[in-house]
Design goal:
Layout lengths: L6 E10 L2 E11 L4 E5 L6 H8 L7 E6 L2 E2 L5 H6 L2 E4 L11 H8 L8 H6 L1 H21 L15 H13 L5 E5 L7 H18 L2 E5 L3 H7 L2 E6 L2 E6 L1 H5 L2 H11 L1
Helix pairs in contact: 3-6
The protein binds adenosine-5'-triphosphate and magnesium ion.
The site of magnesium ion (MG) has 3 residues, from helix 1.
InterPro entries: AAA+_ATPase (IPR003593), ABC_AA/LPS_Transport (IPR051120), ABC_transporter-like_ATP-bd (IPR003439), BCA_ABC_TP_C (IPR032823), P-loop_NTPase (IPR027417)
Organism: Actinocrispum wychmicini
Keywords: ATP-binding, Nucleotide-binding, Transport
Length: 257
């Protein structure tokens, strides 16, 4: 699948009753870019992801991945187009082993359905072997080998966040949405994650949107940054430009006060 795909978000508005979670938000993410979205709690960052992957239906606006309009499609069809995400609160099945969690991530790539699997044994078996090999390459990339058989619920927190990234990568995404990949991590775990994300980018070249409160990670990894406040875009630019923008500083200080 083509991994270098541009994302276009235009005039996106999302309301929940009286709350405007996203107010006329627009931005482009270039093919292969690492684009960050920052903003205080409740700014609308996760809501952008939920609009991109079809979980929320925006009242207005258009989202395009390459030539394909995503808005109006179901979450399953958007996932099948190669949009994968990690969750702010882990999206792993705690009772399943790490490797089974990653295999589940590939479900939409499997051509052999369950019924066909029962009758066309040979083909299903060959497919299973190919999928295992692809999952193993994700496990190698993220150095998750020692935890292969560990139930996801038993993984140390930092490793579980990495496994969550692995689950998304196992989907062979064209667009990867990362919702606070280092939330709750200590400095060492954060530095490890930064290294893995850099490696993912170098090796897979996948287009990424990073939502993160950790400004150091954003400064280190992002090409460009969009800052939101109460659903309104307040700045776009390089990490240094956005971090020093007085309106952005004010939005964060206002939140802290
Ligand atoms: N399903 C929902 N129902 C009602 N309101 C919602 C829903 N999802 C989000 N909101 C509201 O939309 C606004 C934006 O929420 P969102 O979760 O996108 O913020 P966020 O920037 O991801 O915040 P955080 O940094 O805390 O994760 C908030 O006011 C939130 O309460
Ligand atoms: Mg959020």
């Amino acid at each position: 699948m083509e991994r270098l795909t541009k994302l276009e978000v235009r005039d996106l508005t999302l309301r929940f009753g009286g709350v405007t979670a996203l107010d006329n938000v627009g931005f482009d993410v270039m093919a292969g870019e690492m684009f960050a979205v920052i903003g205080p709690n409740g700014a609308g960052k996760t809501s952008i992801f939920n609009c991109v992957n079809g979980v929320y239906k925006p009242q207005a606006g258009t989202i395009r991945l390459g030539d394909t309009v995503l808005t109006g499609r179901s979450p399953a069809s958007i996932a099948a187009l190669g949009v994968a995400r990690t969750f702010q609160n882990l999206g792993l099945f705690g009772n399943l082993s790490l490797i089974d969690n990653l295999m589940l991530g590939r479900h939409h790539l499997m051509r052999t359905g369950m019924l066909a699997g029962m009758f066309w044994w040979g083909r299903a078996k060959r497919e299973e072997i190919t999928h295992r090999a692809d999952v193993e390459s994700v496990i190698d990339l993220l150095e998750l080998g020692p935890y292969r058989r560990t139930p996801a619920g038993m993984l140390p927190y930092g490793v579980a966040k990495r496994a969550e990234l692995g689950r998304a990568l196992a989907m062979e995404p064209t667009l990867l949405l990362l919702d606070e990949p280092v939330a709750g991590m200590n400095l060492e775990e954060t530095e490890d994650m930064a290294r893995y994300l850099t490696e993912v980018r170098r090796r897979l070249g996948v287009t990424m949107i990073l939502v993160e409160h950790d400004m150091r990670l954003v400064m280190d990894l992002a090409d460009r940054v969009l800052a939101l406040d109460f659903g309104v875009p307040i700045a776009t630019g390089t990490p240094a430009e956005v971090q020093n923008d007085p309106v952005v500083v004010e939005a964060y200080l206002g939140g802290a006060a």
